[in-house]
Specification:
alpha/beta; Rossmann fold; 2 domains; 5-stranded parallel beta sheet; 15 strands; elongated
């Protein structure tokens, strides 16, 4: 399984690198043209600095955010982001600072080398943000006081994430962040590759998983068990969204809207359990597996329980969703 995860993780890195290399190709062309102009300049005297380049460096534009109009750099060079790191990297943008939790994402950890941590999900280290001298801050923190403090450091764009997300779904998030940064072409290139890969994965599942077979996500929290909908991590976006695998009717009715999770007692697990159970366990407490209730469920009897590693399935950015869809597909078809 470790070998499988490494291969899948590498596949994701290569996909992102393809996007980055495309951007680098354009940069190399520009560099070659600049070098040619420099050689020509040796033959004819010219000003020591280009007024046009200086003007472009200082260019700004107005971005309409949930906090109102914000004047931002047209070409930001030092971005700090407490969210959306994987989306930025997929667009070929490497911020100078990010939330440590997202820096540690296993699917992009190699690409995140050199990005400095600005805190974790428990809070932002404002002193660290100041020290990085950002020219643009992207935040998903919905605390008005935090936003005000960040805005005093640099132009700050608030983009809510998760159940209150401004951009809902892979395509909306990729295009939304791309519009903010002027990376629309890179976004469309990435999404084209994403759509092709997801279509391939769905094809692999065709015939392996019945159209009427259902899937349930359970999380073991010791004595408590939780179940989730399609927009609360734990693989939900990959399972129900990308791969279009079906939830039980009860989960669809109760957890596919504003409410995305529910605490369950052991006794009611069979009422929510599908033909397949995806078991997300961070604490590693497996005592419930010894109970009669657990072992009475069809998914358990049929060996249709897939274990999801917590450090890989917490995340639900576009890059992670694609990687998780690959991993889940491999589990289901026995690769």
């Amino acid at each position: 399984m470790q070998s499988l995860r490494k291969r899948l993780g590498l596949g994701m890195v290569m996909l992102i690198l393809a996007t980055l290399l495309a951007a680098c190709g354009a940069n190399n062309t520009a560099t070659n043209e600049a070098a040619s102009q420099t050689n020509n300049a040796e033959l004819t005297p010219s000003p020591s600095a280009s007024p046009t380049a200086a003007t472009e460096e200082k260019a700004t534009r107005i971005y309409k955010s949930v906090k109102g109009d914000v004047e931002i750099p047209t070409n930001p060079k030092r971005i700090v982001a407490d969210q959306y790191l994987q989306t930025l990297l997929a667009l070929g943008v490497k911020p100078v600072g990010a939330d440590q939790y997202y820096i540690d994402n296993p699917y992009t950890k190699d690409l995140a080398v050199g990005i400095e941590g600005i805190g974790d999900r428990s809070g932002i280290n404002l002193e660290k943000v100041v020290s990085l001298e950002p020219d643009l801050i992207i935040t998903a923190n919905e605390d008005a006081n935090v936003y005000d403090q960040l805005s005093k450091i640099a132009p700050t764009i608030s983009i809510p994430f998760g159940t209150n997300a401004t951009f809902k779904g892979v395509h909306a998030e990729m295009r939304g962040i791309a519009e903010l940064l002027g990376k629309q072409a890179e976004a469309e290139s990435w999404l084209t590759a994403y759509d092709a890969k997801i279509e391939e994965l769905r094809g692999k599942l065709s015939g392996k998983v019945g159209k009427d077979e259902t899937f349930t996500i359970f999380e073991s929290g010791g004595k408590t068990t939780y179940t989730f909908g399609d927009n609360f991590g734990r693989g939900g976006q990959a399972i129900y969204g990308a791969l279009q695998l079906q939830p039980t009717e009860r989960i669809r009715n109760e957890l596919f809207g504003d409410t995305q999770w529910k605490e369950l007692s052991l006794e009611v697990l069979p009422e929510y359990a599908g033909d397949y159970i995806l078991l997300f366990s961070e604490v590693g407490n497996d005592e419930f597996k010894q109970t009669e209730i657990w072992n009475s469920m069809d998914a358990v009897k049929n060996n249709h329980v897939l274990e999801l590693a917590a450090d890989r399935f917490w995340y639900f950015d576009p890059v992670s969703i694609l990687a998780q869809a690959e991993e889940i597909t491999a589990m289901l078809i026995g690769e």
